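Hi everyone, sorry if this is the wrong subforum. Our group has a chain we'd like a structural model of before ordering constructs, and none of us has done structure prediction before. Sequence below.
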Amino acid sequence: MGKPRMIILIRHAQSEGNSKTPQIQALMVSKNRDIHQTVPDHRVRLTTEGQKQAEEAGVNLRSLLKPDDKIHFFTSPYRRTRETTEGILKSLTSNDPSPSPFQRHAIKVYEEPRLREQDFGNFQPCSAEMERMWQERADYGHFFYRIPNGESAADAYDRISGFNESLWRQFGEDDFANVCVLVTHGLMTRVFLMKWFHFSVEYFEDLRNVNHCEFVTMNADPISGKYTLQNQLRTWSALKRERAAAQDKAQVIVQPESPIPVRKRWGGCPEGCDHAKDKLGDIKPRQKSADISSRYDDTIASPDTELGTPAVPLSEAEDDPRGQMGPPNPPFIPTTTPIEEEENFLTRHLSPNRIYMLRVGRDGGGSRSGATSRAGSSSEEEEDDGGVAKSGLQRIKTNPDGPNTGVRARADALGDQMDGGEDGGGVEDLERMEAEDRSLRGGVY
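Answer:
Right subforum, don't worry. Here is the predicted structure as tokens:
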């Protein structure tokens, strides 16, 4: 009969090693790999869900076939693949809901060991070790990584190559079917396509696994006889691009382009400006110079304004980088005389608890302004540190040569002390001292 018009590869239905029980879902694990620690891989059976999937696959296959098609099945000898084949044949040959054109005795089924799953060793180690092994395989490469005590995808490629050659030879038999169905495993389906269509190793490693009971169909061209793959195989790279595009679409924010590059703002107040307030509350807003000038034209300085502190010109205050805190100082208008200023100075800066004594000079002012002249002194050793610090006042002088007579000496117009004499003095003594003062002996020169 020649080449079959259609080759269909079917991955087995859900098995106990692929199931997601509540315990497995709680551990966030996609597969029940612990079962391979106690049950050999070739004895793993289908789950209840897997049996339903197998029967549904038979119904789907029936819709693809023609009533006069002759069918040959090639199945892996593993239990899960054989149970899948039985489920497909059950629904394919069932007369429910309508009579089936396909009879069970007319369909040939071959067990082909070369279609078995990649050998992962005997009993597998713990799940943690298997997970480490899968990570190591991902880093090394899915195609060339050889499982300890098992085989690599390259080893599976070698045996599937032998199967393809045997299958190709059977195409020339007269009783060969025109529809060939291969019930195998996920990795063996990809290896078969790699061998048939000459996929590269990189493309093979980029392929995602086939779903349970998914049909991978190859149709032969009636003229050239070449087979064309009817499925769009899924790849990991395409999945990553789809997820990245979806994420970018969800997070994209359209912003207008600006010719000015965005620069970091160093000035201002990044967390909001609160300089309009000080510790005492709100500060009045800054006023214009014209308003301030008119406001203080007829105003004198405040009594609290410190003397000697000139007012800041308005033009300079506006240019002051420190800013203007409230209204400027009013123009300085002196309200006191120089004498009052001196008295105020003495009042502010001299301690009230201390007596300050000024030495009397000849001119009645300053501190010892006439100190070069000792005229009128009865003795050169006499010191006048105890004198009164104000001209015109009288000072009591004790006679060093005799008892105190209680006579008070008076100062002359220049502030010099008038000598009272030994007997206390009188008018004659006063006239004598005045004449003596006018003499060369009493002069300042």
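For your construct planning: The longest helix spans residues 153-170. Strands lie at 6-11, 71-75, 108-111, 179-184, 215-220, 227-229, 277-278, 281-282, 395-396, 408-409.
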